[in-house]
Structures are given as C-alpha cells and as structure tokens.
Design goal:
Elements (H helix, E strand, L loop, with lengths): L8 H10 L6 H13 L9 H14 L3 H15 L5 H16 L3 H8 L10 H13 L3 H19 L7 H4 L1 H15 L6 H18 L10 E2 L2 H8 L9 H17 L6 E4 L2 H8 L8 H13 L4 E2 L27
Parallel strand pairs: 1-2
Antiparallel strand pairs: 2-3
Helix pairs in contact: 2-3, 3-4, 3-5, 4-5, 5-6, 5-7, 7-8, 7-10, 8-10, 10-11, 14-15
The chain binds zinc ion (2 copies).
C-alpha cells in the first residue's frame, strides 16, 4: 500500500491483516511509525494503534530493538488514555521487554493491567501473551480465573444462553480454557462452560441442529463415584452432575430440539477409549468417548413422565428427583 495519503483507521485494519504476508514487513512497520510520528494519520487518535502495529510486525521478525522503540512510542502516544487499545499497547510493550530480558520493567508495566481484564477482553489477550512470554503462564491463569469469577459474580448465577449473551465472559472463558489446556490442567466448571459455549457457537455457525454429545453423557451413581476420584469435569457431586444434565436438556428443548436422550457412560469403556498409557479423563478422550457414545444405541430417552421413574436411576419419581433440578 502506498503511504502517500493520510492513513485511515480502515487502512490500519487492512495493514493488520496483510502486513505479515507483505514482501517487506519491516518496511511497512517503518512506514507506519513514520506516518504516526509525522502526524500523517487521518485520525490522530490512531497514532498509538499504528505504532503498536509497527511493534508487532517488528517483533514477529525478531527485530526486538525496533519493536521496543515502536512499542515505547505507542505507549507514549496513548498517554494517560485508559481504554482497551491503550491497555493492549502497555501489555505489548511488556511482552517485548520480557523478550529482551527486562523482566522487572515488564512486571511493573503489566501488574496495573490486572484489574482491567474484566473490562477489556481484547487487552486481556495481550496481558496473557505477555505473561506467557515472561514465563508467568501460571500467573496469567490466575488472573484470568480472577476475572472470570468477578464477571460471573456480577452476572449472577444464570448460565449464559450463548456466546453473544456471555459477552466479555465468553472471551475470558475462552482465553482461560486455551491457556489451561496449554498448561495441561484438568477441566473445571469454567472450562466446561467455555466448551459448552464454544460448541454452541460452532453449532450456530454451521447451522447444525445436532445436539453436542459431550453435554449429554450421563454417569450412573456408581460410575460417577469411580470417576470422581479422577476428575470433577462432570460436576463436584452427583447431584451437580444430574442438575447440569437436566438443565442442558431443558435448554436444548427450549432451542427447539426433540428426541433428546442421555448417553449413559461407563468408566471401563472410557478407560478403554484412552488406550494403554492414555489419560482417560483428558478433555480429548472424554470428547472422543462422548462422540462414540452418540453413535451407539445405549440411550435413556428424556424426558420421562412426571410420575414415571426418573431417568437417573434413583428409583424416585421424575417430578420428585431430577425434574426440579432444572430450576436450581
Ligand atoms: Zn477443553
Ligand atoms: Zn433423578
């Protein structure tokens, strides 16, 4: 792109998409920085953005000195602005400082961003990346957990209907989920929620009507107790497990799905699915097992009659057992 005219915000976006594939990305970065510093931007407010972009391009080419210069200039351009792009620029600067071994300066820069994660999910991605580069991925996981908990507390107990409804929470959950997989951590209830929302988003995008099988695996009492020694991915207690299934089925009904059924699981089959040396309770194996169950014939039709035996096998009437759990 010839940089003869003042750069607009749309130009910057386009450069963001195309710069890394450009013949001379470092030339693009230098032009961006020059445009920002010479006041050749259609919107002077974009100076920080142009310089951040220049820094990211230089960083991607391992030109850390240039990247540092651009990132410093970006933070200066933002001044005391306290919005998402400004926070992202500070995190980017910290990331490049970490790369240059200047951990103390990076730590000082990134720490004040911690309480901002709930407000600026885009900047949160930069903060997470900076901490990971600084060898502080565990801290990033803690910060994201803290942010997720704060947003959940603010929203109240209602489960978001979909990714749109979850808003900021979805972005935070997703980042946390990815990071925790990278760290090899087991799924917790937030990861389960992240996966449910991701599945729903994927289903909505593909227009597929199929119910996500992972949400419908049911562990009968004895199986659940065996599994509970290995993972709490299906809920901390059997009551919690049954409640989340009942709630999921009610949600799927509300979404217009019919012919719903629970897929009863067995720990032996889950273990066999993992193979020798495999981790039966890894998210991948659990998802694979759920898919296998979904193609099989073992299923418990839902819902039962109100006065009929409950689907969970407790021996109680449905209306006295799992039916009310959807309201909890
Ligand atoms: Zn997962
Ligand atoms: Zn029941």
């Amino acid at each position: 792109m010839p940089l003869t005219a003042d750069l607009t915000s749309a130009d910057l976006n386009e450069i963001r998409q195309s710069a890394l594939g450009a013949a001379d990305p470092l030339g693009v970065a230098a032009d961006l920085a020059h445009s920002a510093e010479a006041g050749r931007l259609a919107d002077p407010q974009d100076a920080g953005l142009a310089l951040s972009l220049a820094a990211e391009i230089a960083e991607s080419r391992s030109k850390f000195d240039a990247a540092q210069r651009y990132a410093d200039a970006a933070v200066t351009a933002y001044g005391d602005r306290d919005d998402s792009p400004a926070a992202a620029a500070r995190a980017l600067r910290a990331r490049i400082l970490y790369r240059s071994g200047r951990a103390d300066e990076a730590n000082a820069l990134v720490e004040p961003l911690r309480p901002l994660l709930t407000r600026y999910p885009d900047a949160a991605a930069y903060v997470t990346a900076a901490l990971a580069v600084g060898g502080r991925a565990r801290d990033a996981e803690r910060w994201l957990t803290e942010a997720v908990q704060a947003v959940v507390a603010e929203r109240g107990v209602t489960e978001p209907a979909d990714a749109d409804d979850a808003g900021v929470l979805f972005f935070l959950l997703q980042q946390r989920h990815r990071l925790r997989h990278a760290l090899g951590l087991q799924h917790d209830t937030h990861d389960n929620l992240a996966e449910r929302l991701e599945t729903r988003l994927a289903n909505a995008n593909s227009g597929a009507a199929a119910a996500p099988a992972t949400d419908l695996v049911f562990w009968p009492r004895a199986e659940f107790d065996r599994l509970a020694e290995r993972t709490d991915a299906y809920g901390a207690t059997w009551d919690e497990h049954r409640a989340s299934l009942e709630q999921e089925l009610v949600r799927q009904t509300a979404a217009g799905r019919t012919g719903l059924a629970l897929l009863p699981g067995s720990v032996d089959a889950l273990t066999a699915q993992a193979g020798i040396g495999g981790d039966p309770v890894s998210p991948e194996n659990r998802a694979g097992y759920a898919r296998a169950l979904a193609t099989g014939t073992a299923r418990i039709a839902w819902p039962p009659e109100r006065n009929g035996a409950c689907w969970c096998g407790s021996g109680l009437k449905y209306k006295k057992c799992c039916l009310p759990r959807s309201r909890g």
